[in-house]
Amino acid sequence: MIIAAAADAPVGGVAGWAADLMEKLGGPGAGLAIALENLFPPLPSEVILPLAGFTASQGRMDVVAAVAWTTAGSVAGALALYLLGALFGRDRLIAAAARLPLVKVADVERTEAWFVRHGAKAVFFGRFVPIFRSLISIPAGVERMRLPLFLALTAAGSLIWNTAFIAAGYALGARWHEVTDLVGLYSKAILAAVVVAALAFVAVRMLRSGRGARRRQVRRDEEDVRI
Asked: pTM for the full model?
């Protein structure tokens, strides 16, 4: 990211795109950028939000409006994913899981039971976890969490997350990208943990499948011997 001067917006990449939206639309531009970030998790909120704070610090956008619009954008993006999950539905999810290798319907049912017990906490605290802050809306829709509760939890979590990052960008001014650099390490740690957990799941499932196949073969061999 390139910053020509303290008063200049960054050029190029996601930061340049978001800065252009905010320059043209102000607070609504910041809200639109965050709504799209919810729909497309590779767009990082840790870039967009501190940049909104920096833009506000330069007098090109009101900081309260930045918080309000980005929170509205978060809720709008999360609602779209909630509706997608509700449209897909539980039956289709289970049918899809049954066709996937190494995934069992029981896995989906256990996850479903967990979400029924902890869904409210997952939706609220999930707003503070990169990647999952967007994806958590889908199981909420699949499980048809009460919409007013989902919207309230999403708005509350998003308000805290957005305010913290916008305030940091506002305070740091032209050094807003330091927030992005710091949170980038946090995001990478989360992603690495997810990858390790996924690899461990696949390894355990393949090991169990191999053992099951060997046991079935032994039983067939024993039956052949009896015959």
From this structure: 0.72
